[in-house]
Amino acid sequence: MTAVVETEGLTKFYGRRRGLEDLDLEIRPGEVFGYLGPNGAGKTTTIRLLLDVIRPTRGRMSVLGTDPRDPRVRGRIGYLPGELALEGRERASEYLAFLAGVRGGVSRDRITALAERLEADLSVPMGRLSKGNKQKVGLIQAFMHEPEFLILDEPTGGLDPLVQQEFLAMVREVRAAGRTVLMSSHVLAEVEDVADRVGIVRQGRLVAVEDVAALREKAVRRVEFHFDAPVPREEFEGLPGVRDLRVEGANLSCTIDGRPDALIKAAARFTVVHLVSAEPDLEEIFLTYYSEEEAHHARAGVQEPA
Amino acid sequence: MPALVSKSLRDHRRSLVRWTIGIGAFFALYLSFYPNISQNQDLYGDAALEKFPEAMRDLMGGLTGFTTGTGYLHGVVYQLFGPMLFVVCAAVLGNQAIARPEESGTLELTVTLPIDRRRLVFERFAALALGLLGVAAATFLLAWGLSVATDMGVAFDRILAAHTGVFLLGLLFGALSLAVGAAAGRRGPAMAVVGVVAVGGYIVETMGKNVDAVSWLRWVSPFHYYLDGKPLYQGFPGGDYLVLAGAAAVLLVVAILAFDRRDIGV
Ligand SMILES: Nc1ncnc2c1ncn2[C@@H]1O[C@H](COP(=O)(O)OP(=O)(O)O)[C@@H](O)[C@H]1O
Ligand SMILES: [Mg+2]
Questions:
Q1: Where would you find the membrane-spanning parts of this chain (chain B) (predicted)?
Q2: Residue A19 CA: which ligand is closest?
């Protein structure tokens, strides 16, 4: 199957300012791809390139098998901009009807159903909608025509937690229907529950693409054991993946990297009264990519002649 | 009607109504003075107006025959203020096509619709032209009605000829503001260019008649192709109007090409 997005050396400079450099990215049909990076990393630049809002300085890309310059391909995409602007006296319902018309028609029931799901009031003039409500209107217009490919730039900004959950459910349904999603965020926590893969972009460059499942494997986990009697520290030292080991009487705590198997087997030799294992903090490993990058930059900085 | 055209017209509905009311009120106010002025030859006759400096009379379009219906209608409405009101109205509409929505960010969703960018500009221009036509048609009927009510004795087709010229002049400046806005993506430059071309063009055309140093510039002034043929006196200056319409078309093409080439919202 052909990729939904394929880029090669995709580069965008704003004048002399780098927006994105040499991006090689593939997004596969049916996956949810989380596009992560801090503010200014180049996420919006990438997305706007894919939609032909801005033009690449160099490089090549195809979206849904076509050059994004072809306006027809945009009919197969749903897009939520990172900075959504809705204004004026027009009601959201009228605006959505206009967008639906240009996109070849969407049943009113579908729009109503989405509005009810997200608890959006479409009868208010758009200029008076709160940020969260604008975001809901933006989500409705992105989802309403059931596009093959959804591009969502920081979709959860301004949404309250309940609506966020509903939105994530909508994304899962899209994936279940075999359609593809690209969503950007500056925090992993926002996408880790739905994304199959994440790409990490930093300072205009893609620094890693990871399977979320694999990322979980790598994740650092904090574990605590409480035994019925003090345990000898030596029994737990040097176990594969075990770090930051602390043994205080009958209590043991450590972090594990990867599989907990060896630790569990070692603990099984004693009587375990209580076990606490925190959710793996993907954010933490995600940040290690950044700190490595930063360390790299710091070294480069030192070597530079003054 | 294409979706973008009807959407733009709906968005501009209020502003178009306001412009119609504003321009209409201006016409009504000034034309209502006519009966008074036509009866005061010694105050407003040619001899009385001779006392103004020549350059100033040139700028006001000569200021002759002010006490006749045609002279008054021309001097007050069709020489300067009528065209300028239409120029500003059209320039504002031209800015609403691209530059304003680009500045506010609402253009982002529009350009990501499955619509060719060239068609987007074309349809926004069509909305501009239709909106301006609506304002022109309403104010034309008003001007004609008032001229009849105040006994000006100006023929229907002469008023139509002058009003058509005002509309075409407006259309040209609307296309100019659209073109600059489509190229620059900002309202400021569009308004600046329109301001310079309108004021400069008007001065060049009116003063240029008697100042040789600038008279050669008259042919580039849009106002030349409206004022020079004296439509209120002599009827439709067909060729001149074609130049205005042609220039608007050229500017539309420039707008389309410029917009198709560039990054949006950067
Ligand atoms: N219109 C612009 N003009 C100049 N620089 C820009 C523009 N848009 C983005 N940039 C720069 O490009 C880089 C990437 O920005 P962006 O793609 O918006 O990042 P993100 O969406 O990840 O926050 C940043 O350094 C930003 O300053
Ligand atoms: Mg962004």
A1: 16-34, 76-94, 125-147, 159-183, 190-208, 241-259
A2: 1
